[in-house]
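Standup notes
- DV: blocked on the single-chain target, sequence here:
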Amino acid sequence: MHGDSSMDDGGTRRAFLWLAGSGAGLILLGCSNKTERGRADAREGKENEEEEKVTPGEDLMQEHGVLKRILLIYGEGIRRIEGKEDLPPETIRKSAELVRSFVEDYHEKNEEDYLFPQFRKAKQLVDLVDTLYTQHRAGRKVTEQIIALATAQGLRNGDDAHRLSDLMGQFIRMYSAHEAREDTVLFPAFRDMLTKNEYDALGETFEDQEHEHFGADGFEKAVAEVAELEKTLGIYDLKQFTPTV
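- DV (later): unblocked, structure below
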């Protein structure tokens, strides 16, 4: 009986030690998994935070992307007028109205209120800033005339249609150069003029301005609107712009 009891005690001790070891392993494994989940959540939170923070330069360049897409719409309008193809006048008119509301009254106003004065105060790139400002004024006049001519009656009138085509061509020529110079010269120089805190604060100001003008998701709404205009003209599918060589 004594020998049997020793064997039972030894077996019990071994079983207890195995269970204890397994339990500790499970606890450590659980802690390890929890730690990894915590690290993953922290990384994801940091990534989301970084994604949400759009710098002023990135903000302005994204808005230039909307303008570039409108220039493509104008280019298609010119092609159809010159080829005497059907062109829905409301598509050109709505594009010009989007230029006026999103580009001229919002994007360019931010440039004129927050960027141009800094360069003039610092006496840097003043000639460039003056030219950009003059082009803003000229662009507004062109947009006004495009809106006036982009009608069914205007497209039926040969002279008016030719004038509309010419105005869209002038707009494309000016703003292709205009926004390229801002993206490659003005915006990088502006970034170097400000401290990180000043630059971050301006990003928040731009965000506030967007909400004030358009409510939530103003940029996303502009992108959606221009996409619908592209679909109307059949130029939304990006694949069609790929050259076949």
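- Follow-up: The helical segments are 2-52, 56-82, 89-122, 126-149, 152-156, 158-193, 196-214, 218-233.
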